[in-house]
Structure formats: structure tokens, C-alpha cells
Amino acid sequence: MTQTKRIIVNTLAQYGKAIINIGLSLYSTRLVLDALNISDYGLYSVIGGLIAMLGFVLNSLVITTQRYISYYKGKGDENYIKEIFANSLLLHIIIGIVLCGALLLIKEWLISNVLNIDPVRTETAKDIYVITTLTLFITILTAPYKSLFIARENIVYISVVEVIDGILKFGLAIWLTYISADKLFVYAIMMLGILVVNFLSFTIYALVYFKESCIIIRPKSINRKCLSHIAGFASWTTYGMGAVSARNQGFAVVLNHFFGTVINASYGIAFQIYGAMAFTVTSILNAMTPQIIKAEGENNRERMFFLAEKESKFSVLLMAIISIPIMIEMPKILMLWLKDVPEDAVMFCRFILVSFLCDQLTMGLNVVNQALGNIRRYTILMYTPKLLSLPMAWAILYYGGQAQDIMVLYLIIELLVSMMRIPYIKRAAGLNAGQYVRNVILRLLPTLFVISATGYICTTAITAPYRFVLTFVLSVSTGFISAWFFTLEKAEQDFVKNTFKRLHVCLI
């Protein structure tokens, strides 16, 4: 399979998975919220989110392992790839034990002195804390195997596993409505069980089909130099991902401190929608990231920048076409979805989705820096502002600010960091900044305006009961039409035409 065809197949697999999982995830959240009630859902969001924020370790290790495997596949060094995986697995085990052990040690202090929890639910909160800590450990162990699938560009299998994951969570949400036991405790246990299924799905397949994978680390496979390189790259990646997670989940803790668990339900719902929308972006990231890193391994920097532009442009385009009409009709959609909509949920959803769009404008350049491997300075410059927004948010609320004020701060920082990537990569790797702005940002602006204008006109001119359906259909339609004329380049238009011609021939 050619590189272009592989990208297309992987993108379609991830996009199909995204569509299925968005529907399952959003409806599952409604069922879970209804079964647990707003207070218990907020409790799970703040405790589970507090542990999950340390899942940045997982993301950083996935990125690190996948980066080194993809890079040396570009170099053609298969033997070194085996050493990379073995040493990466060892690093995952060590970090998992240390991190989860530390979390268990601070359990009593955190629940008793930091979190604002109803005394009646304190013991349950402690149980949820232990279960989510085990969830984090299993997640960390899954990372090296999942990164191997991404590096080998076997995105189809990842998509299948993640669809099954969505189906299992949907089944759990339905089951919760019929049981009489402590639903919050059962929900946490079953979420852990679903994660174990994911771990086994990735591990068993990798051991059978990928010769570089292993489950037992032999002493001769341990390479101190390799381990040092992986640990060094992972440490800075961990700082970056940790800054994002600390900001996202730290905001939840700050909101909990000032407003209680009910507002955490609103914030948690916003991140549920964010996670569902982000599925559309992973369809591009997982398909193109290995190719970008391989291009640098092959010393083909021109192709690396070309793919980075495509990744940024199409991730924003796919996200915007879906998310903008949803943001415009957010009040009605949440009312139909949840029935009992927590206060401020609409505001949180809109700010987080707009911030995510801003970040994606230059996400391809983030992958370029991973390929370059010069990560320390980049990480400090790009992620420290996100981390600093957390004490700034605390100060805003301490001096009488409202929840909306800290979300304005959230948006400003995301946009600032996104724009900072352009001059940085220009200096670090010779990016043509003007070309990037023309090919990505300026080509996206007309389509973003058309989608937004269509949605605004629908909401002001139409008062039908199910107007949101019409808003969505018209916004998506005008978005695709605008993208064809303003966002797609001539070569991309020709590629789409030829693809549809081949599909037509196959169907005939």
C-alpha cells in the first residue's frame, strides 16, 4: 500500500470510529448523568479527573515511543527498534509503579484537605480514588503497545478496539439505569474492567503480529543509552502533557474549591463533548504523524513540512464543520441530550471547543518538533504559559471573578501558544512562515466564517422546534462547499475527484 493510500485508509478508519463513538459517548453521558445524579457525576468527574490528569504520563510515553519507532523506521534500523520497545516497556512499568504508589500515599490528605466533598460520600470517594489509580496503572502499561500500532500505521485495528470500547461503555450506561447498588462504585469498577479489555486487545495482538514487541524484558535487551534517550525525551514530553493536564484538571479543582461539585458536572460535561469532538482530529493525527516523523528520519524535510500543513488544515476543517454548528445550538442540544442541564455547561462547552480549534491551527508544527527531537526549549516555551494559567485562574476567582472569566483566560493562552509555534519552527527548522500562514490559516478563514454565519442566520431567522437539525445540516453543507472553493488547493480538489471516480467505477 502506498503512503498516500495508507493515510487515506487510516483517516477513514479513524473518522468512521469518531462518528460512531461520538454518538455512543454523548448518549452514554446522558444515561450516566441521569443514573448517578448531578452531584455524584460531579464527584466522579473531580476525583476521576484528578487521577486522569496524570494520564499525561501515558500520552507523553505514547508520543515518545511512537516517535522513536517511526524515526528509526525511516532510518531503516529494525534491530534498534526492538531495543526501543523493550526499554520503553521497562520505563512504563517503573513510572507506573512509582506514580501510582505516590498517589495512594496521598489519598487521605487529598480527599480530606483539598477536595470539597459531601461528608456522606467521603468513604465512597476514597474507593473511587483507589479504583481510578488502578485505572491509571493499566493505562500506562497499555501505552507502549498502542504506540507500536501507531508507529506501524495499523490505525484500523486501533479504530476497531476503540469502537468496541465505546459500545461497552454504552452498555454500561444502560445497565446503570437498572441496578440498585451504589451506582457510582459500580460505574468506576466497570470502567476499570473495560480498560483491562483494551489492554489485552492491544497486547495480545502485538505479541502475535509485531516481532519487536515483548511482554518479558530480558536483561540483554536493556540498553542504558537507549533508555536514557527515551527517558530524556519522555521527561520533557511529560512536562508538556502534564502542564496541559494540570491546567485542565486543575481548573476543575479550583472550580470545586470555590463553587462545589455541581459546577464540576458542568465542566465535566464540557470535556465529554471536547473528547468526542477530538475523535475527529485523531483521525488526522494518527494517520499522518508517523509519516511526518518518518520524513525527518529520511532527511526529507520538504515532505515533513508539506504533511504538517495538511495535518493542521484538515484537522481544523473536520473539527470546525462539526463543532461550530454544535456550539451555536449548544443550549438546545444540551437540553435534549441531558434533560437537566447543569448551570454554566453551555459556557464551558463553547469556550473549550473554541480553544481547541485555536490549538489545532498549528498542531502539525507540534508534530514537526517531535520529529526534530529538540524538545526541551520548545516544551518550556509552549507549555509553561498553560501551566501558569492555573494560579492565575485561582487568583481571578479569589478576588471575586466568575467561572466565565477563567475560561476567557483559557482561550487567550491557547491562541497565544498556537501562534508562537510558527516563528519557533521557522527558526528551528527553516519553516516558510508566510507559506504556512497562506496555505493553512488564510485558506481556513473563509470556511470558518461561512459556517459561523450560516449557523447565526439560522438561529436568528428560524424558530422551529427542531431548528438545530436544520442549523447543523445547512452549516455542514455550506462548510463543505466553502471548503471546496476556498480551503482545498487544486491538487487536493483533483485528488477528491479522482477518488470519487474510482469509487463510482467500483460500485458499477
TrEMBL record:
Keywords tagged on the record: Cell membrane, Membrane, Transmembrane, Transmembrane helix
Keyword Transmembrane: yes
Localization per record: Cell membrane
Organism listed in the record: Xylanibacter rodentium
Domain of life: Bacteria
Membrane topology reported for the UniProt record: Multi-pass membrane protein
Protein name in UniProt: MATE family efflux transporter
Transmembrane residue ranges: 7-29, 41-63, 84-106, 126-143, 155-178, 184-210, 273-293, 314-333, 345-368, 380-400, 406-424, 444-462, 468-488
Keyword Transport: no
